[in-house]
Specification:
single chain, SH3 type barrels, 3-stranded antiparallel β-sheet, elongated, alpha+beta, 4-stranded antiparallel β-sheet
Length: 191
């Protein structure tokens, strides 16, 4: 008899729990693409027709969750393009510091001034040659005028190599400056 009462109580509790509303977090989709679709759908402006517009339906759960809060910054104009909220704000430029090593061209053309290490300087019959290495420990020989990924070699002396580094700032403006790498750097300088 006691087991029958226990089973009856558990069935009643399970039925009551099924009737209770689910928490808001359980109703939210977990994938960013679903969230994007809901946000775009909720933000799409309604286009009234020439005929009388039917009564507006009740707002959906997604529209209620994406409604702007008082004091929050205003959303961009409805007609303008919308930025993907999941894409990073900085580091999208192909010649910026966000360039990854797998997208660089092979050979000297893929060397970057900021990642070079000066290993040696040699006087050759055609002028000075700089022996440099990249982070993957590959060795390259550079002469004056050689192009690299983000600049070129200006001059090579017995003590140092001068590079012209070309890049862009955070606003997209072109920047050009001279970077000198010394064979025997002073304290605080990069090698």
């Amino acid at each position: 008899m006691a087991t029958m009462r226990f089973r009856h109580c558990t069935l009643v509790i399970a039925g009551l729990l099924a009737m209770l509303p689910k928490p808001a977090m359980a109703q939210m989709p977990a994938k960013p693409n679903v969230v994007r679709a809901q946000v775009n759908q909720a933000a799409a402006p309604a286009r009234p027709t020439a005929a009388a517009a039917p009564a507006a339906p009740a707002p959906s759960v997604a529209a209620a969750q994406t409604a702007p809060k008082p004091g929050a910054p205003a959303a961009p104009a409805a007609g303008g393009p919308r930025r993907d909220p999941f894409s990073p704000l900085l580091g999208n430029s192909p010649t910026g510091s966000g360039t990854s090593a797998d997208r660089l061209p092979p050979g000297k053309a893929g060397l970057m001034v900021g990642t070079l290490r000066l290993d040696g300087l040699v006087r050759g019959p055609d002028g000075m040659i700089a022996v440099v290495s990249n982070p993957q420990k590959r060795v390259y020989f550079l002469k004056e005028g050689d192009r690299i990924f983000d600049g070129n070699v200006l001059r090579i002396t017995m003590e140092a190599v001068a590079f012209r580094q070309i890049g862009r700032d955070a606003f997209g403006n072109a920047q050009e400056h001279e970077v000198t790498r010394r064979l025997y750097p002073n304290s605080g300088e990069q090698r």
